[in-house]
Amino acid sequence: MHNFVISGNSGKPISFDIQFPETQGKYPLIIFLHGFKGFKDWGQWPMMGSELTKLGFAVLRMNFSHNGTTPENLVDFVDLEAFGNNTFSKEVQDVQDVIDWIFTHKSIHDKVDLDQLFMVAHSRGGAIAMITAAEDYRVKKLATLSGVSTLQRYTEQELAHWKKEGVVYMLNSRTNQNMPLYFSLAEDYLTNISRLELAQVVPKIQQPFMVIHAEEDETVPVEEAREIASWGVNTKLEILPKANHSFGGGHPFTEPELPSDTKKAVELMSRFFTGKE
Question: Most exposed among 23, 79, 167, 240, judged by the fewest C-beta atoms under 10 Å?
Fold first, then answer.
């Protein structure tokens, strides 16, 4: 495992790690994006990365610069001010910064095949991956895990209250923290709606796109996967029966093996990325 921290253009450092297969060679590189209130080391994601390396992929798991963690505290939300000031545009910029780093950081070029740069993203991270794929053709294939079909998840009444107060708080039931969201998040969406609204973004994605979704997702309804697939020009929809939003995982994750639903997702992604599906 190789750990990196780079200066992001959004004003905060970006932490990521890269894991390579044990044998020598140049491998396809998967960039993994976490979801809302997530981080690269959440739950079973590190184990999922290891499983993908066994299947012949290099895997880069990254933290968004404003996800509330820091390079010194990778699994705790110690910077709630950064979390509150996060925006979708900042997350897209973070991914762009990491992709630029990949293509300019020559020390990894003997280990990764730059012509096989893929993306995997969970939940809200799926939206960022879709936007990135639509804008950056260095990304060759894309797979989402219970990705959202829209970033607009608030009623008009909620938006009006949010604008008036300037901030709303969301309870993180796992950490018992009241996590702030400043109205700048909504402003970013409303100002850049043509760039960020996925109904407009997905039809622009020309790369092969696998939409993997949990049938019994309690956070992002499976209907959103069907919407995404219906908008796409090169999409393949896979619904995992009885799976939940975290694909059987949770944080902390202490089991010795991947949850069966995560393992199924890994198998689907591996076949998709290698052209064997």
Answer: 23
